[in-house]
Amino acid sequence: MADTLRRLTNTASFSVLQDKLDSWHREYHIISCDQNLNKCCELIEITAKIQGQLFSILNLTAAEGGLYGGVDTLKMRLLPWLGTCFSLGRPSITNDTSLQLIQDSAEKDRRIRELSASHDSEVQKLDIELCSTRLQLDSLRAEVGDTLKPCSNLLRSAHEQLEIYRRRLDALSDYERQIRLLREEVSFLSAEKATLQERLVRSRSSSPTPRFCRTSTPRRSESPTRAQLTNSSRHARLVSRFNDLYATERLEAQTLLRRYIADLEMVQRIIFLAVVESFKAAKLAYFKYKLRVKKTLSPSHFGPESLDDAAVDHIVRNLEVYDIQASVNNVISAMNVSPRISFPLDVDLVLISALIRDTCRVAFAMQTLDPPLDVAFASDGELYSDTKYRQSYDSDFSAPLVVHHVWPALMEGDAVIVKGEAVTRRGALWTRSRSRSVSPMRSRSLSPTRSLVSL
């Protein structure tokens, strides 16, 4: 019996019955008559199941009491209750009561239909309002799009105007450079005009000589050449270009070489040697070209300026005739046999020909200045000079000696025009010399494979 009672307790049948009864009470006036009857039948079925379980418990409990256990309770409570349930002779519901119930049910169904119709009407109104709101939202989006379109066009136009202004600024800077050059030209022409006017006045003021008899050559006054008049502007332009070589072309060449040579120090040595050899090749080419120009101009030269000044002026006017490719080839050949650098056999120094070409062009033009510009002499192990060099970021700033150079200093005679860059470290030269004595570095000139290929 205890197990049956435990199962009845665990199933909480009475709680389920009470919940369904409360739910039916709340929905009684909303649902239809058939739904109410179904709920009532469901409750009766649940009640019958519960009663069947209770009768089973009653039977088991009476059996546990023995033959006469619980007789008085059954007589006093169960039997009178059963007699009352089965003594009903006829139903208590009359025809009038049944008719009233049918009318109440019809009235409830009518109310339910009205509520349903009202609900459908409200839902339809809400759908209409929702559609109207969506249309208004689409209209607002279209208006916003139409409003933003001119703004986007205006913004695009503003960007285009800004780009145009930037281009104009770049063009303006070019115009300013051209204006400076034109001013120099004007000053040169003005000087020539003044010289010619002075010569004309002197020729008019002097006594006339016979038309076909000249006893002496007229004295000509010295006048500055174009090269002398533009010397200062060319000086500033070439110094600026030398700085650009350090800031731009040097870094590009270093990036190219680092793809094939991992040692940054060796890459810096190669670039430094390329600049130094470019100046040597350009100076030699300038010297030869100047001799050739002087030899060509000598038979027909009779101007007020000296033959040397005339040759320099001619070179300044015709810098494009400089055979720069020959100098580039000479630089690469000199670097291939230099013992100061070493690099893999599959690396060709043509990689940095752009740097060599630009440096040769600048160095050649620097020789036309008065006085000419040149790079300072440099050697590994020299005493560091703060007036000639800047120490690189990876230097030992307290070290007194230069390990290797990154960029040469630009000199005008004994004066430093642009500082170079050098690397200083303590004890590096001694360690490097010992390592070279034990295991010498191999340059391209010592490579038998390279020699056979060149032959």
From TrEMBL:
Q: Which UniProt keywords apply?
A: Coiled coil, Cytoplasm, Lipid-binding, Membrane, Mitochondrion, Mitochondrion outer membrane
Coiled-coil residues:
165-199
Keyword set includes NAD: no
Output the Gene Ontology terms for molecular function.
lipid binding
Q: Pull one GO CC term from this UniProt entry.
A: mitochondrial outer membrane
Respond yes or no to whether keyword Transferase is given for this record: no
Subcellular localization(s) per the UniProt record: Cytoplasm; Mitochondrion matrix; Mitochondrion outer membrane
Q: Which residues belong to any copy of the Mitochondria-eating protein C-terminal domain? A: 234-424
Q: Name the GO terms of the biological process aspect.
A: mitochondrial protein catabolic process; mitophagy by internal vacuole formation
For bias kind Polar residues, which ranges apply? 203-230
The UniProt annotation puts the region (Disordered) at 201-230
Q: Which InterPro entries match?
A: MIEAP, MIEAP_C
Assigned protein family: Belongs to the MIEAP family.
What protein am I looking at? Mitochondria-eating protein
Q: Which organism is it from?
A: Mola mola (Ocean sunfish)
